[in-house]
C-alpha cells in the first residue's frame, strides 16, 4: 500500500489562548488543532498531549487519542484536542506546549510555546468589620440625617 511509503507526519494549525493572568490553581480550557500531513490515517493510536517543557512536572499529564476506527483522521484532515488545564499553585511564568505523537510515541509536530502567567492573588484584605454606633431609626424624603460608624481591618 502507498501508506507504507509515505511518512507519518503532522503540522500545527491552531491553538486557543489562555486567559492572562491566571490565579493560582485556576482551571482554563485550551483547544489545539493539528493537521494530518502524512500518508497514514490516524485511527486512535495517535495522541495529542501536554508536553511539559519545564522538566518539573508543572502540568498534569494529559492526552487524548486522535481519530477512531469508525471516525479516522485521513491525510489532509484536522484533529482537535480539547484540554482542561489547571494552573500551577505557585505564582510565576510557565511554558506550555502541546504535541501530537505517532503510534511509536514520536513527536510529529508541536504547538508554539504558550507562556502562562500565574499571578499572586490581588485586591484588598477582605476581613473588614463595621459597627453602626448611632443612626436615625427612620428618615422621610427629603430629610437628612447623620450616622456614626466604626470599621476595623485586621492585617
Give a verbal description of the structure.
It is a single chain. This protein has 155 residues and is mainly beta. The model has no long low-confidence stretch (mean pLDDT 83). The protein has no helices and 10 strands. Strands 3, 4, 6, 7 and 8 form a 5-stranded antiparallel sheet that branches. 0% of the residues lie in helices and 42% in strands. The protein is elongated, with a radius of gyration of 27 Å. The termini are far apart.
Number of E-type strands: 10
Elements, N to C (H/E): EEEEEEEEEE
pLDDT under 50 segments (min length 5)?
Answer: none
Biggest sheet statistics: 5 strands, antiparallel
Gyration radius from CA atoms, angstroms = 27 Å
Our measurement of the CA-to-CA distance between the termini, rounded to an integer number of angstroms, reads 73 Å
User: Treating each run of at least 4 consecutive H or I residues as one helix, how many helices?
Assistant: 0
Silhouette: elongated
State mean pLDDT (0 to 100 scale).
83
What percentage of the residues does DSSP assign to strands (E)?
35-45%
Percent range of helical residues: under 10%
Structural class: mainly beta
What is the gist of this entry?
The chain is an all-beta fold. It is built from no helices and ten strands.
Features:
single chain, mainly beta, 5-stranded antiparallel beta sheet, 3-stranded antiparallel beta sheet
Amino acid at each position: 500500500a502507498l501508506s507504507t511509503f509515505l511518512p507519518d507526519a503532522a503540522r500545527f494549525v491552531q491553538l486557543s489562548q489562555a486567559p492572562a493572568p491566571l490565579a493560582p490553581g485556576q482551571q482554563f480550557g485550551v483547544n489545539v488543532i493539528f493537521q494530518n500531513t502524512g500518508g497514514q490515517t490516524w485511527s486512535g493510536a495517535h495522541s495529542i498531549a501536554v508536553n511539559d517543557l519545564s522538566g518539573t512536572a508543572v502540568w498534569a499529564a494529559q492526552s487524548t487519542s486522535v481519530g477512531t476506527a469508525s471516525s479516522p483522521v485521513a491525510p489532509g484532515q484536522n484533529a482537535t484536542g480539547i484540554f482542561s488545564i489547571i494552573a500551577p499553585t505557585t505564582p510565576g511564568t510557565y511554558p506550555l506546549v502541546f504535541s501530537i505523537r505517532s503510534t511509536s510515541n514520536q513527536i510529529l509536530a508541536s504547538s508554539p510555546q504558550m507562556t502562562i502567567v500565574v499571578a499572586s492573588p490581588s485586591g484588598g484584605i477582605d476581613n473588614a468589620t463595621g459597627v453602626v454606633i448611632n443612626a436615625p431609626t427612620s428618615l422621610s424624603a427629603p430629610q437628612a440625617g447623620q450616622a456614626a460608624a466604626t470599621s476595623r481591618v485586621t492585617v
